[in-house]
């Protein structure tokens, strides 16, 4: 598991399920909770058709936006 998880906070193990880590139990639980939510959303989307996934370059832009998401101040670079 340690080899598979690498520098990430979660790994999905065959015949086991989701394993998450964090600096404390609350952080690891939050990671698990977030992944479960995203999995549910994906499942529900699959139930009504094939979800459209963002291309890598668009996903990079989304990740960049989350660096300052929720912060107050100058958002002119958004």
Set down the secondary structure blueprint.
Blueprint: H1 2-5, E1 10-13, E2 17-20, H2 25-47, H3 56-66
Antiparallel strand pairs: 1-2
Characterization of the model:
The protein has helices spanning 2-5, 25-47, 56-66, and strands spanning 10-13, 17-20. By secondary structure, the chain is mostly helical. The protein has a two-stranded antiparallel sheet. The N and C termini lie far apart (38 Å).
Looking at this protein, list some descriptive labels.
two-stranded antiparallel sheet, mainly alpha, 10% strand, 78 residues
Largest sheet: 2 strands, antiparallel
Q: How much of the residues is beta strand, in percent?
A: 5-15%
| Total beta strand runs | 2
Number of domains: 1
Order of helices and strands: HEEHH
Q: Which structural class matches the secondary elements? A: mainly alpha
**Annotation field: number of helices:** 3
């Amino acid at each position: 598991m340690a080899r598979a998880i690498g520098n990430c906070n979660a790994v999905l193990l065959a015949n086991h399920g989701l394993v998450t880590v964090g600096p404390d139990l609350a952080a690891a639980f939050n990671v698990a909770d977030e992944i479960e939510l995203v999995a549910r959303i994906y499942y529900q989307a699959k139930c009504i058709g094939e979800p459209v996934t963002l291309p890598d370059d668009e996903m990079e832009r989304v990740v960049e936006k989350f660096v300052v998401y929720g912060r107050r101040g100058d958002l002119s670079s958004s």
